[in-house]
Known about the structure:
With 368 residues, this protein is α/β, with parallel strands linked by helices. It folds into 2 domains: 3-204, 3-Layer(aba) Sandwich (Rossmann fold), CATH 3.40.50; 218-355, Nitrogenase molybdenum iron protein domain (Rossmann fold), CATH 3.40.50. Helices cover 36% and strands 13% of the residues. The chain has helices at 3-7, 11-18, 45-51, 62-70, 107-119, 129-135, 153-160, 178-191, 195-215, 240-246, 265-271, 285-291, 299-302, 305-308, 328-339, and strands spanning 57-59, 77-80, 97-99, 125-127, 139-143, 169-173, 222-229, 234-235, 249-251, 275-278, 312-315, 353-355. The relative contact order is 0.15.
Amino acid sequence: MSVIGRRAVSALGLANRLLPDHLKREDAAYAAQPVFENQLLEATDETMTKKKPNLRVVSLIASSTEILNALGAGKLQVGRSHECDYPPSVLDLPAITRPKFSVRGGSAEIDKRVRTLVEKGLSVYEVDADALEALHPDVILTQDQCQVCAVSLRDVEKAVCKLLHADPRIVSLHPHTLDDIYRDIGAIADAIDDPQAGKKLVASMKKRFAAIRDKVADQPRKRLAFIEWVDPPMSGGHWMPELIDIAGGESVFGTTGQPSPWITLKDVAAADPDVIVIAPCGYDLEITQREVRPLARYAIWQQMRAVREGNVFLADGNAFFNRPGPRLVESCEILAEIMHPDVCDFGLRGEAYVKYKMARAGVIEKVA
């Protein structure tokens, strides 16, 4: 998948800056991703298909696609959004959505294009109603949390109104906290007539979160600044403070269940965090490493204690952190490894995250 394609889906970070609080945040991504352990259940695709062979599911957000597959129901899925890319097998399914903005350029350029669409009251994505009808879906999975970071409930309802030969059930997700995510997993499991699979997946996630918390229980807590968009900067809200807490840290920005806050480099310097983690939504490690290079131009960045002491890390924000689904467990493991490497080793370093190395810039600029 192209670098340009991966850049297109960084609208999550943009959405939080552009919308009213009650509409903010969902996750989106469009990159080939490293494969890590997932919470797949004993129920296999084959058993799910045998249970209800005619059920056809279209998932229009990346997180619901991951949840559906973690429930063991991947073979029920017949269509996806352009953002759905995990597990890799879903890339063989037809994508029936696309962005309305040019996806070329860096984070600041994408921010400007999406901002322009939103200010005009336009949708950022479109659903191909003809392609949707051709799939004859029984269930459509979407979200009503954010109008610009992923295909919205409004976009889906508009497309469904055009269907002549289908009357699908629409399941709309609205996650802000881990409990909300557990609820959404249950809603998807109910929609595919397998509520027990949902209960098993939630229990598995809770058990793994508890294991992480136990590992770091006796460790000193680190103050962590999580940055999910670089230009302009934004920190992580919603479920991110919960993940940081479970991993043995304290979030210096963001409040559980609340939208991700805008911040500045001055805010980060004033907070003086022990650790900084940068994981822009929709960007893999390769793109993230390019996006953070300009930070070295700023004296305020070079002078931060976390930067001087080598406690800045870059993580894959496309695969982790920003999708409210099963891989939030691995996201929490990444944070635990970063903050408490002496007691936590989940084998994620190098693939899921790396230590930031600052290339000295020739020009040092001041931050206004």
